Amino acid sequence: MAIGTGEIFIVLLMYAIPLVVIVYLIILAKRYVDAKVQESKASTNMNALKESLDRIEKKLDKIDKILEKVSE
Predict the structure, then answer these.
(1) Tens-place pLDDT, residues 29-67
(2) What is the DSSP letter of 3?
(3) How far is the first Cα of the chain from the last one, in angstroms, to the nearest whole number?
(4) N or C end: fewer C-beta atoms under 10 angstroms in the chain?
């Protein structure tokens, strides 16, 4: 009994379609993880920037106090 081209096509579809879906889901998951990593890096950079600005503001406040004392 020979296998016809129609049967081969159906067997290929049975394996190819789920495989394509799985590969697509893996690609989506990778993109999601990459986006979350970038978001985390951006958040970390923003926190570091805020801390740096806070330190600069404190130094400026000290300078203002010193200038007030000197001007008296």
Answers:
(1) 999 999 999 999 999 999 999 999 999 999 999 999 999
(2) P
(3) 108
(4) N
Residue with tokens 């697509």: 24
Amino acid (1-letter code) at residue 46: M
Distance CA 38, CA 32 (A): 10
6 has pLDDT over 90 = no
Look up the pTM and report it. 0.59
d(CA 25, CA 31): 10
User: What is the per-residue burial (b if ≥16 Cβ within 10 Å, else e) of 49-70?
Assistant: eeeeeeeeeeeeeeeeeeeeee
At 52, list the tokens.
Answer: 């740096």
Here the tokens at position 69 are 């004392």
Q: For the chain, give every domain's residue range.
A: 29-72
